[in-house]
Amino acid sequence: MTITTLSSRELNRDVTRAKKAAQHGPVIITDRGKPAHVLLSFEDYQRLTRQRRTIADALAMPEAAPIEFEPPRVTIVSRPAELA
């Protein structure tokens, strides 16, 4: 994987170069010398977003069916500690 850095001015002048570079790794776009944006191939973007999906995200999706969940009640009994 190759990381390419381009200034926003370079990006504006040669978008094709940035798109080609994104096929080999992320392209960091700087604004006044500081990293401001990252350009990724769509494949890399999909891979990254799939990894971050949690069960909570999946359940929050509008197409998720309602789930009934009733966990069993737990009774906790305490006892004196043995210090022998």
Structure overview:
The chain is an alpha+beta fold. The chain has a domain of 57 residues: YefM-like domain (YefM-like fold, 3-Layer(aba) Sandwich), CATH 3.40.1620.10. 36% of the residues lie in helices and 18% in strands. Strands 1-2-3 form a three-stranded mixed beta sheet. β2 and β3 form a beta hairpin. The mean pLDDT is 86.
Question: What's the gist of this structure?
Answer:
This protein has 84 residues and is of the alpha+beta class. It is built from 4 helices and 3 strands, in the order E-H-H-E-E-H-H.
Based on the model shown, name its key terms.
single chain, 84 residues, alpha+beta, YefM-like fold, 3-stranded mixed sheet, 4 helices, 3 strands, 36% helix
Q: What's the order of the H and E elements?
A: EHHEEHH
End-to-end CA span? 61 Å
Question: Quaternary arrangement of the chains shown?
Answer: single chain
Note poorly predicted spans. Answer: none
CATH class of the domain at 4-60: Alpha Beta
Protein name: Antitoxin
Pfam families: PhdYeFM_antitox
Organism: Tepidimonas ignava
Function: Antitoxin component of a type II toxin-antitoxin (TA) system.
Would you spell out the secondary-structure blueprint of this structure?
Elements: E1 4-7, H1 8-13, H2 15-22, E2 27-31, E3 34-39, H3 42-51, H4 55-60
